[in-house]
Amino acid sequence: MAQPTPIEELVGFLSSPRQEIRMIACGNLVGYSSGPQKSIFKASSLKPIKDLKILVRDHPNISENAVSILINLSDDRAVLTLLANDDDFLELLFSLITNPSYPAADYIAMLLANMAKHEVVPEKILKLKREKPKPEWKVSDSENAMDQLMDLFVKGSNKTLNKNANFDYLAYLFADIAGNTEGRKHFVKAQEYDKVIPITKLIVFTEHASLIRRKGVASTIKNSLFEISSHPKMALDSSVNLLPYLLLPLMGPEEYPDEESLDMPAEVQLLPPDKKRETDNTVVAAHLESIMLLTTTREIREKLRELQVYPIIREVHLAVEDEEVRDICERIVNVLQRDEVEEERIQEVEDEEEDDDIVPLV
């Protein structure tokens, strides 16, 4: 019988009854969880993964390392499925992330974001009800898991809830949840908890200093806008006022003639000469795709024309040297610049011609 390798021995020590042994083993194994030897964690029907799930509730140092390893391994479908289908483990993660004294809350946010890649997790989180966090923690007054996550994201953005966590990675979790049909509906509908539409809590972060937060929020907005019925509320209702939050990251130091700028949303007029455009092209593309989605209905298209969105897109196309960004810009321009009346007339003629081709039954 072959002797176990040093790494195999370390993995075996994850279940040691002695805390100091578990701490040494877990700490030393973090580096192997993202390298070519990561398959060692899938041995014995995923027993090491089961051990790591237990260690998440161990000493804080052990817990942080265990979560780090699980983050690195959760891109494996078998590991992801084991984590996603464990409701008790999901509750454990929520109990830790909502505890302001837990030092590795941002690691939990990363793990939850990875777990949301499994199709069952967004639905579970949307439906999950759990005990409210302690009132003295000032985290959330809701028993809904989604409300608690949103409160963490908004209230804790500057480490004001947890001195070790800013919860930025929850933005990626929200983006995956918004990729789910029920998730989209959640983000665009006022919640019973506070009567607020969740997307309005996120749009204020489109120009946040954290790229992680900006990326996740941009993707969440875009995914939520696949709920076409929400567009009038999102684009036309002043209580949401989505459009300026999509346009501001797209705008740089350009000056527009009065006949264009005076019709733009007030929030994007008179910007300072040192205004910086979003530097990450994936975020720029996401906001452009959100605007493209808003062009789905004629009502919103007319509003976008009225608010002089075209000149802003024109400047993005000129300033950003990225093929994907320019392609989306061109598609938006083609939609906004087309003649709606002429298109309707052509469609009516085509419909009449089709009617003429119909042979009645006799």
Which key terms come to mind for this protein?
362 residues; mainly alpha; Leucine-rich Repeat Variant; 3 domains; 21 helices; ARM-type_fold; Protein HGH1 homolog; Protein_HGH1_N; ARM-like
Describe the structure.
With 362 residues, the protein is mainly alpha-helical. The chain has three domains: 7-31 and 39-73, no CATH class; 75-224, Leucine-rich Repeat Variant, CATH 1.25.10; 245-337, no CATH class. It is built from 21 helices and no strands. It has helices spanning 6-12, 19-29, 43-55, 60-73, 77-84, 87-97, 105-115, 120-127, 145-155, 170-178, 181-187, 198-202, 211-224, 231-236, 242-247, 258-261, 281-294, 298-306, 309-319, 323-337, 340-357. It is elongated, with a radius of gyration of 25 Å. The mean pLDDT is 94.
Spell out the blueprint of helices and strands.
Layout: H1 6-12, H2 19-29, H3 43-55, H4 60-73, H5 77-84, H6 87-97, H7 105-115, H8 120-127, H9 145-155, H10 170-178, H11 181-187, H12 198-202, H13 211-224, H14 231-236, H15 242-247, H16 258-261, H17 281-294, H18 298-306, H19 309-319, H20 323-337, H21 340-357
Helix pairs in contact: 1-2, 2-4, 3-4, 4-7, 6-7, 7-10, 8-10, 10-11, 10-13, 13-17, 17-20, 19-20
